[in-house]
Amino acid sequence: MNCLINNAIDSHLRKGRKIEVIKRYIRMKYSVQIDNFSMARRMQLLNLNY
Fold this sequence. Notes:
By secondary structure, the chain is mainly alpha-helical. It is built from three helices and no strands. It has helices at about 1-15, 20-30, 35-45. Helix 1 (about 1-15) packs antiparallel against helix 2. It is globular, with a radius of gyration of 10 Å.
């Protein structure tokens, strides 16, 4: 499940989507709630600079 969420975050950020939109997509698609701190931490771990 972590890989799916990380891939979703990566692909949507590359498309220029906002973090709120990505959180909503993950909540609807995978039924997982993710908070702002966790989202920021995942982005740091993926070494993404957008």
